[in-house]
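REQUEST FORM: STRUCTURE PREDICTION
Request ID: SP-0412
Submitted by: Lab K.M.
Chain count: 1
Length (residues): 373
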Amino acid sequence: MTAAENVRAAVAAVTDPELRRPIGDLDMVRDISVEDGVAHVGIVLTIVGCPAADRIERDVRGAAAAVPGITDVAVEVGVMTPAERKALTERLRAGRPARHMPFGPDSLTRVILVSSGKGGVGKSTVTANLAVALADQGLAVGLVDADVHGFSIPGLLGIPSGTQPTRIDDLMLPPVAHGVKTISIGMFLRDGGSVVAWRGPMLHRTVSQFLTDVFFGDLDVLLIDMPPGTGDIAISIGQLLPHAEVLVVTTPQAAASDVAIRSGLVARQTGQRVIGVVENMAAYTLPDGTVVDLFGAGGGASVAEALSVPDAAVPLLASIPLSPALRQGGDEGVPVVTSAPDDAAAGAIRALAEALARRGRGLAGRTLPMSIG
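STATUS: Completed
RESULT:
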């Protein structure tokens, strides 16, 4: 191979951080030549002002510079034409029409709804940490924040205020945080501080657009952070994703567990399958060995028992102890599974991720060699 061919091969292998595909496969590489050890590299970005522009250019420069014999690199950056963008979006859709919902019953993506009967039980915190724990296992993970009125996923994952999806014509590319592709209504509100006061039709349309217009690519698992209760969004997602699996989150006390049962029953009425219960804010152990069950005990087990039916037992998959590190990680936007992996709550969430993968139907058709130690 010539020097220019070697540079082209190296540059083509650079991954677009939003699309998670080599830029060579995305037709983003243009003319490449080498003169007296200097590589002249032409690339094009999808849109003007692409938020990943600096990183792509830096990675391209680094890839070219690593080729033997290259002493310097000059990168020329352009933008795709409308026709090139159209061809790219059609290729990304893999022949599917625009506004097609890619997570139907025939999809290889496992869809898991994380629900609760009431707010304040830490459902979103569990969802965010579970998503990161699954991504840490090498899985392709997407996360939809369907809690439109009480969105908190961007903050929990440390996505800066004002971050918006990149738009390529009618496709939206979700921001990636801690390896998780994420979408939330909070990304479309000024400084994330506006109030969403919408009723049924607008809520349905928003959730539907998250599932059709956002390009997640090939996912192993899609987590959906549900709003508390059994309102409009729960009904809409039941219609859009009747095959989805449901994980019910509760706290130990009866005031929460009694209500959590309702969310599981509503999901089951739409055809969705309740795969397990997570008990959050469970008993924790003080340094002197004293066990403190601040919110009581037994709520998770009672929800699991109530939701079990003769031909489908619902297990208590995890009991996550109260944890200052879990709370701090949420406040700082660094999930506890990353910020404090040795914390008891982090260990419980990682075990939950492994249990879900092991009990699943093989994410994206793969057999996952996972077990709880």
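NOTES: The first helix runs from residue 3 to 12.
Reviewed by: T.R.
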